[in-house]
Design a protein that fits this description.
alpha/beta, 5 strands, 54% helix, 235 residues, 5-stranded mixed sheet, elongated
Amino acid sequence: GRAVQALAQMRAADLWMVAVPDRQIAVSADEMARALPGQAPATVFHCSGALGASALAPLRERGWQVASAHCILSFANPASAVQQFAGTPCGIEGSATTISRLQSIYTAIGARCFALEAGNQLLYHAAAVFATNFVPVLQAIAEDLWRASGVPQELLPQLRASLLRNAVANVLALGPTGALTGPAARGDTDLVNRQARAVADWDATSGNADPGLSELALALARPAPGAPHARPTTT
C-alpha cells in the first residue's frame, strides 16, 4: 500500500477500517460515501468504543455492512501495545454477519472478542476511561499535592512506583473492595470531609472531584447487602 492525499485515490477493498478521532467518524463515513462512487458495497468498521455502528450510517444507507470494534487496551505506546495485545478483550457491535467476520480477524491476532449490545457503548467506554485514563490524572493530582505539602521532589518517583505497584497488586489479588484502604475503608467520615475541604482550598477543580470520589469509596467500603462490591462477612 501507499499513502494517498484523497479518498478518491483509495483502491477498492472489501473491508475498510476507519481509525480516526470519534468526532471524525461520521464525517469520514459521509465523505467516503460521496468520494467512492465506484466502490461496491463492502464491510466497514470503526475503532471507537464510545460510538456504535450507526455512526457509519451514510455508508449503511448505500448498502455497506457496518460495525464497531474496540479493543480494551491502552495504546499509549504502539510498540508496547503490540507486545501487550495478546488476550486483549475486544467489543464488537454490528450485524451478525459483520460481527462474525471481525471476530475471526481479531481472534487471529490474539484478541478475545465479545458482542457488544447497541446503545451500551458510552457506559462500556466510560468503564475503560475509569480503569485507565483517570489513573494518570489521579496520579498527577497526588504528586502535585505532595509537592504542595513539602515532599521532596526526588522522592516522588519512588512514591509513584511503590504505591501504584502495590495498589495494582492488591486489586488483582483481592478485588476493588478488598484492596480499598484509607479513611473511607475505616469509616472515618470526619477525616474524609476535612480532607475534602483542604483539597478544595488548595485547588477548586481537584476539590470538586474529591467529594464524589470519597463518596464512592465510602460506598465501596460499606456496600448494601447483596451488592456486587459487598465484602464477605466473617464471624
